Prior knowledge:
about 40% helix; Glutaredoxin; globular; 8 helices
Amino acid sequence: MRKLFTLLAAMSLAPGAWAADAGSLEAAWLADPSRIFEAEGVDLAELQWLARPVVVFANSARDPNFIEQMEEIEARMAQLVERDVIVVVDTDPEARTALRDKLRPRGFMMVLIGKDGQVKLRKPLPWSVREISRSIDKMPTRRRERHGSG
Length: 150
């Protein structure tokens, strides 16, 4: 929980601190797959066939659903890393990020995007990492990865 509050404080004090620099998103994620990225500067096309984005939107970092979702993600990040998940957050509707324009959340929303770049899930309430993992494990790409042919 302390890590989450540190994350939230860093995001509110330094809005660009978690932003991905142009051209370095892949390298930054590969260097630390447990890192949480701010939506600004994230290009989904750069992640295609590399990672499964889980994008968590809220209108404020203080949204109770956002806090619950992020606590769940942080507590079980290893399960997401194992499934090539990159976690991206967007808690500033005024920033009008490309992800927010593309996915059009209303308040809190958790979105799971497959390695193919397609939206696989949209949830208006927090989801457990267990539920997210089960959804990923049912994807054909993930099944191939688990059987050594992907």
